[in-house]
């Protein structure tokens, strides 16, 4: 088994303090099934991809399309229930969020060694989970929103979806004081060779895994 294809974002690759990745569709893997079965079929590929980040504790969320955010780190459960955003300052943590049309939002505080990873689809965007993540980072870590670098993952957009929630996420982040927001503009509904799309594939598909970690002073290096 080889690693799942991994997309890197230039805005995050330029930051020495973090490691990141966004897994793409695994060629030839049949994921025309329900979410849990699809994730089981993908787990071997995702596990190998996580290993490229070194010996870290993997933290993810039992995503429910909420506006809730949780801080995780040493002592936290591997899966946090009922939240859609994870924040940490733990240098041994690897944050993970699963998406298939929804947007994974990567947040990096370039001054305070703090990071966040958020799942925002139509519902989460209506609840302004992006703005909630910025506020929670300010409260928890003393983050100045102007110090944040934020990257939006590929997600579904018109004409493949009736709501342009990526544009709304941009607006919410700017309203929260973030000035550095990056977005490739890629549409998951338009490219089924690279992405899984819940809408286009009518719910029977896989998930991309967004990953984010703090780079350690010991010499962590980003894997491409």
Query: How do the SSEs run, as a string of H and E?
Result: EHEHEEEEEEEHHEHEE
- Into how many domains do the coordinates divide? 1
Could you tell me the number of beta strands? 12
In CATH terms, the superfamily is CNF1/YfiH-like putative cysteine hydrolases
* Number of discrete helical segments: 5
Instruction: Name the structural class.
Output: alpha/beta
Helix content percent band: 10-25%
Report how far apart the termini are. Answer: 17 Å
How can the largest sheet be summarized?
6 strands, mixed
Note the beta-strand portion: 25-35%
Mean pLDDT metric? 95
Low-confidence stretches: none
User: How large, in whole angstroms, is the Cα Rg?
Assistant: 16 Å
Write structural notes for this entry.
This protein is of the alpha/beta class and 224 residues long. It is built from five helices and twelve strands. It has a single domain (6-214), classed as 4-Layer Sandwich (CNF1/YfiH-like putative cysteine hydrolases). A six-stranded mixed β-sheet has the order 1-2-12-7-3-5, with helices on one face. Strands 4-6-9-8-10-11 form a six-stranded mixed β-sheet. β10, α5 and β11 form a beta-alpha-beta unit. The longest helix has 17 residues, at 35-51. The chain is globular. The two termini are 17 Å apart. The mean pLDDT is 95.
């Amino acid at each position: 088994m080889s690693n799942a294809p991994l997309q890197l974002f230039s805005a995050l690759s330029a930051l020495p303090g973090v490691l990141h990745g966004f897994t793409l569709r695994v060629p030839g893997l049949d994921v025309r099934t329900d979410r849990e079965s699809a994730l089981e079929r993908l787990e071997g590929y995702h596990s190998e991809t996580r290993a490229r980040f070194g010996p870290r504790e993997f933290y993810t969320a039992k995503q429910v399309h909420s506006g809730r955010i949780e801080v995780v780190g040493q002592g936290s459960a591997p899966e946090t229930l009922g939240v859609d955003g994870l924040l940490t300052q733990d240098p041994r943590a690897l944050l993970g969020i699963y998406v298939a049309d929804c947007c994974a939002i990567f947040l990096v505080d370039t001054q305070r060694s703090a990071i966040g990873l958020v799942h925002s689809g139509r519902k989460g965007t209506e609840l302004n989970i992006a703005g909630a993540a910025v506020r929670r980072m300010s409260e928890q870590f003393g983050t100045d929103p102007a110090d944040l670098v934020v990257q939006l993952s590929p997600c579904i957009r018109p004409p493949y979806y009736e709501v342009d929630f990526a544009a709304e996420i941009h607006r919410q982040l700017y309203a929260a004081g973030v000035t550095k927001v990056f977005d490739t503009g890629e549409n998951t509904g338009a490219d089924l060779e690279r992405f899984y799309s819940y809408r286009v594939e009518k719910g029977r598909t896989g998930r991309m895994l967004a990953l984010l970690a703090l780079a350690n002073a010991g010499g962590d290096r980003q894997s491409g």
